[in-house]
Amino acid sequence: MNKVLIINASVRKEKSHSRKLTQLFEDNWKKKNPNDNFTHREVGLEEIPPINEKWIASAFVKPSERTKENQSGVEFSNELVKEFKEHNIYVLGTPMYNWSIPSGLKSYIDQLMRINETWKFRSGVPDGDYVGILEDKKMFILSSRGDTGYGENEKNEHMNFQTTYLKFVFGIMGIKDISIISLDNEEFGGEIFENSKKEIYQKIGQI
């Protein structure tokens, strides 16, 4: 039995295409895996606080030296990290905002990116050799974008700080099995966008 965490990052509700993708994924997955458990984490419509000086002071305390007092800055972060670790499949729905990701999703990632919790230095000291702590996890990144050509070896690949960043940062945490499905051409609308939706919806249905 899998534990699936659905993460939605769009600041829109009914008009959000990334939310439609995660809902389609969930409906399809439940049909094929009726015994799996689902949890939902909202990072677009609910505020995820950015990290601050108190957070940093708490996060970098060595595990052996942690106390209730010096960990007060990461109480909410601990909840998010615990939830994240308890799941083995992640479904992340996110739009592209200004060639990157929504601010709420960035804050969420900052809360998860915890030394000695989701990653560590291999030698135990800063050495540029990062080791992910999370193992045996699978992630699906379902993105929506207004334009096109952001994929590998495409003309706008150099402008894609959305899925390339997400794959990199979650990879640092140890998640190597990452599938990316992107719905493009939203700004074009009409037949172009409808054809894109048809293609992507079919891909999700085959997962």
Net shape: globular
User: For the residues shown, what is the average pLDDT?
Assistant: 94
Largest sheet: 5 strands, parallel
List low-confidence stretches: none
* Total strand segments: 7
Strand content: 15-25%
Task: Walk me through the structure.
The protein has helices at 17-32, 53-59, 75-86, 103-112, 163-172, 190-205, and strands at residues 3-8, 37-42, 89-95, 119-121, 130-132, 138-144, 177-183. It is α/β, with parallel strands linked by helices and 207 residues long. The strands form two sheets. A five-stranded parallel sheet has the order 2-1-3-6-7, sandwiched between helices. A two-stranded antiparallel sheet has the order 4-5. Strand 4 (119-121) and strand 5 (130-132) form a beta hairpin. The chain is globular, with a radius of gyration of 18 Å. The model has no long low-confidence stretch (mean pLDDT 94).
Features:
single chain, 207 residues, alpha/beta, five-stranded parallel sheet, 6 helices
Topology:
Blueprint: E1 3-8, H1 17-32, E2 37-42, H2 53-59, H3 75-86, E3 89-95, H4 103-112, E4 119-121, E5 130-132, E6 138-144, H5 163-172, E7 177-183, H6 190-205
